[in-house]
């Protein structure tokens, strides 16, 4: 593996925490907000169509300016979450933005208080690109409160939910997992779960479990508090269940999500249970331990690894085979320093592509260890990044896509890379190992995420009536994991604490099902591509360029796909089953 992994250059946003332009933009935003509030508060209903449109444009410009500042602070914190100066800077930015944005709350509240006919009259003289943004706002119409209450919830987010999220991040970021004479961070420890040596996997599992247990009470308190706070807010906003606010922000119907969840749950036996039984067979084991789940299957005990340059070349070539335009955009991320893949203390253990704002560009964070899964992570995040670049022309409001659609581009990027790697292999053993990696990635994306979604629903429901103990969390965690992964696994008691490091539970409640949506959408899309490749690329790029300007159903119409059809999810899951079929033939053909 190359010794020189890239770190991103945030100077395209600001030169540093002391950059005078940052303070200048803060002051400009403050002046703009004061003028905006003075001009428009209490007057939205009486604005002419032309003035109403002007107010939206001004509101968007202010939000983008604040968004740029917040993005910079977050990106800096993501790579320096143990640096006291950076922590203080990040917290200060969050507090200042919260104070400033409080004065803007009235705008969307007043829009949603308009009757439908009055809102339609605002656009009677012309067409506007902001109709999808307004339609998304209107989804929350029945769940908004008075101006005063909205302001209270908004201002309390800093000393309440955001403070608890920060405590969670700093706690995980400061974990030291003692292993073979070294103190590992969480990312390094999790990486060892895919070690070819079974004793190494077992030992790191034991060490990580012990450290998570030591912090378990604190992490349980964080989660309990956030769930209670969400429950209080959901009650005030009259949400029928804890996940409904996520569905609305994703612009997806609850029945569609539940249809997906049911389809995946029903497919557990034919997908994850079946695959992991085959994996145990290949490994020569009668049963699997939880620390065997990511065990690699490769020849001679030597895993295929990749340098950063090899990973870059592989992903870009896969993108270029499909679309030169996508490859050219992707290449820019490498050339311009928009990726941080290096391994160092104080850095987040996960991976993401942050869109920042349309006037700038996205940034990708990941941790590259040179494994096949890291190549797929790069392909995944680059898919997000390309999507964010292509959608940026829609502007700050409409470039932002619901999570369900956003995951489509990333998973499609993975699929392109996987198919290129697979076609290049002639050795059945190597093909088997690559297939196993892809199947496991898909099971992690679909089965594991729906199991997470089920876990969240159950703990949030139980939190309505009591504070959950570590034992309560552990029981629900073990049940949902056993159901998802199957009887071939033996989950010992040390696994009960592993829910504590799943950051999505803390950062974005009920986010996880979006991954399963994206995977199944891509599986269906890729079938369409295989059957009718001519003209597909152009339609796909149009989907990406649309950003959030169209509902997900409209985006998929050109491909004759309808996620509201109950059989749609079964079609997507059948692709995973096809890969398992292929894997089984290779396993039994040895």
Secondary-structure map with pairings?
Blueprint lengths: L19 H21 L8 H31 L4 H19 L2 H8 L3 H6 L9 H8 L8 H10 L1 H16 L3 E3 L2 E3 L1 H6 L6 H17 L1 H22 L6 H7 L3 H14 L1 H15 L4 E2 L18 H15 L1 H12 L3 E2 L11 E3 L8 E3 L6 H20 L3 H4 L4 H21 L4 H36 L6 H16 L3 E2 L13 H4 L5 H19 L4 H10 L6 H5 L10 H22 L2
Parallel strand pairs: 3-7, 4-6
Antiparallel strand pairs: 1-2, 5-6
Helix pairs in contact: 1-2, 2-3, 8-11, 14-20, 14-26, 15-16, 15-17, 15-19, 16-17, 17-19, 19-23, 20-21, 20-23, 20-26, 23-26
Description:
With 590 residues, the chain is mainly α. Among the domains are: 10-131, Up-down Bundle (Butyryl-CoA Dehydrogenase, subunit A, domain 3), CATH 1.20.140; 176-214. The protein is built from 26 helices and 7 strands. It has helices at residues 20-40, 49-79, 84-102, 105-112, 116-121, 131-138, 147-156, 158-173, 186-191, 198-214, 216-237, 244-250, 254-267, 269-283, 308-322, 324-335, 372-391, 395-398, 403-423, 428-463, 470-485, 504-507, 513-531, 536-545, 552-556, 567-588; strands at 177-179, 182-184, 288-289, 339-340, 352-354, 363-365, 489-490. Strands 4-6-5 form a 3-stranded mixed beta sheet, with helices on one face. The chain has a two-stranded antiparallel ribbon with strand order 1-2. A hairpin with an 8-residue loop joins strand 5 (352-354) and strand 6 (363-365). Helix 15 (308-322) crosses helix 19 (403-423) and helix 23 crosses helix 26. The radius of gyration is 24 Å and the shape is globular. 40% of the residues are buried. The model has no long low-confidence stretch (mean pLDDT 93).
């Amino acid at each position: 593996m190359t010794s020189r992994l890239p770190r991103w250059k945030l100077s395209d946003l600001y030169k540093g925490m002391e950059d005078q332009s940052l303070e200048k933009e803060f002051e400009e935003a403050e002046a703009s907000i004061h003028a905006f509030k003075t001009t428009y508060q209490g007057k939205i209903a009486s604005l002419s169509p032309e003035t109403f449109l002007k107010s939206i444009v001004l509101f968007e410009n202010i939000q983008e300016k604040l968004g740029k500042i917040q993005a910079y602070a977050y990106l800096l914190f993501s790579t320096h979450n143990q640096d006291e100066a950076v922590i203080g800077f990040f917290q200060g930015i969050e507090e200042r933005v919260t104070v400033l944005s409080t004065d803007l709350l009235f705008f969307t509240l007043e829009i949603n208080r308009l009757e439908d006919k009055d809102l339609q009259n605002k656009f009677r003289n012309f067409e506007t690109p902001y109709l999808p943004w307004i339609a998304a706002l209107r989804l929350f119409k029945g769940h908004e409160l008075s101006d005063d209450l909205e302001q209270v919830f908004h201002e309390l987010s800093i000393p309440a939910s955001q403070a608890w999220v920060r405590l969670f991040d700093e706690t995980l970021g400061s974990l030291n997992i003692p292993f073979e004479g070294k103190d590992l961070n969480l990312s390094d420890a999790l990486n060892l779960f895919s070690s070819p040596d079974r004793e190494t996997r077992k030992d790191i599992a034991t060490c990580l479990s012990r450290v998570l247990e030591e912090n378990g009470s604190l992490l349980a308190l964080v989660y309990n508090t956030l769930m209670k706070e969400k429950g209080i807010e959901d009650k005030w906003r009259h949400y029928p269940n804890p996940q409904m606010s996520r569905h609305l922000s994703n612009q997806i119907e609850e029945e569609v999500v539940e249809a997906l969840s049911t389809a995946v749950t029903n497919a557990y036996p034919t997908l994850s249970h079946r695959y992991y039984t085959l994996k145990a067979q290949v490994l020569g084991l009668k049963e699997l331990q939880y620390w065997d789940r990511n065990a690699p299957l490769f020849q001679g005990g030597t895993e295929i690894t990749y340098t950063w340059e090899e990973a870059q070349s592989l992903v870009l070539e896969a993108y270029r085979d499909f679309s030169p335009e996508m490859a050219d955009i992707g290449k820019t991320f490498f050339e311009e320093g928009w990726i941080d893949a290096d391994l160092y203390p104080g850095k987040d253990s996960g991976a993401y592509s942050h869109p920042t704002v349309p006037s700038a560009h996205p940034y990708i964070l990941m941790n590259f260890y040179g494994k096949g899964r890291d190549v797929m992570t790069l392909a995944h995040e680059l898919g997000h990044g390309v999507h964010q670049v292509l959608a940026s022309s829609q502007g700050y409001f409409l470039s932002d896509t619901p999570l369900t659609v956003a995951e489509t581009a990333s998973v499609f990027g993975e699929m392109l890379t996987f198919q290129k790697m697979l076609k290049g292999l002639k050795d059945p053993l190597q093909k088997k190992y690559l297939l196993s990696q892809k199947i496991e990635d898909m099971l992690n994306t679909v089965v594991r995420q729906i199991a997470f979604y089920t876990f969240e629903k159950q703990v949030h429901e139980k939190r309505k009536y009591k504070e959950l103990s570590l034992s309560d969390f552990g029981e629900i965690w073990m049940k949902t994991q056993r159901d998802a992964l199957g009887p071939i696994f033996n989950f010992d008691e040390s696994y009960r604490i592993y829910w504590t490091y799943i950051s999505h539970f803390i950062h974005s409640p009920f986010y996880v099902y979006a991954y399963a949506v994206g995977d199944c959408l891509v599986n269906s899309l890729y079938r369409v591509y295989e059957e009718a490749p001519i003209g597909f690329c152009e339609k796909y790029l149009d989907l990406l360029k649309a950003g959030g300007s169209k509902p997900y159903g409209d985006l998929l119409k050109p491909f004759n796909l309808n996620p509201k059809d109950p059989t749609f999810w079964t079609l997507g899951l059948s692709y995973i089953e096809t890969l398992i079929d292929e894997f089984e033939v290779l396993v039994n053909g040895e």
